[in-house]
Amino acid sequence: MKHLLKILFASSLLLLVFQTATAQVRFGAKAGLNLASISYSDDYINDTEAVIEGDLSTGMIPAFHVGGQVEFDFSSSVGLSAGLQLSMKGGSLEIDGTILGERFTSTAKARPMYVQVPVAVYYRNSGFYAGVGPYVGFGVAGKIKTEVEAAGQTEEDSEDINFGNDEDDSFSPLDFGAGLELGYEFGKLRVSAAYNLGLANVAPKDAVDAGDEAGRDYKYMHRVIGVSVAYLFGGE
Length: 236
Known about the structure:
Blueprint: H1 2-19, E1 24-40, H2 42-52, E2 55-59, E3 61-73, E4 78-88, E5 91-99, E6 102-125, E7 128-150, E8 153-160, E9 174-186, E10 189-198, H3 205-213, E11 220-234
Antiparallel strand pairs: 1-3, 1-11, 2-5, 3-4, 4-6, 5-6, 6-7, 7-8, 7-9, 9-10, 10-11
């Protein structure tokens, strides 16, 4: 799957280069809401629940995306787009467990920020818009905020997200996946909804390798539902 995604991404970029000279070009700015979550592998969840002697659950968090894009119409209805975005992802992780005989609850909200390049083949007709294609992103910043309640006391903590491949890092720096977007155009404005399916394992490599040595599959992957407004100019 990873190799197929790389081939699709490279092919889209090549097509973008070769077709630019004859295409109608349209530029735009795009921003919107992300509803982000992280999908964890069963082994990761089961092992964590065994350590805390309790339950682990995941949830969505609100985030955002903002950036620019360029679109090339190769016909009256078909084209190719490429963008450059800042996209915040992440999710919440809730724990209800026991450590050293003491009951506790914990909520952690991770908000990693990525510089992201989406590429899509799109179809436009009578205001309707549909696009599908790969994306690749690189982690640049973010925060993890944690709230722990135990023995009637609550403690809060905030720390910067570290991107890397050590076990002490928060996330691996590279993210990639596939996106689907549907929308409607009102003149130069486009309102759309999208789903980005992360295909990269963003767990740090050392943590993944440690799991492999123990016969465990440790993975977490981004999932994002997005709602966007884009302003486009140029073209027809």
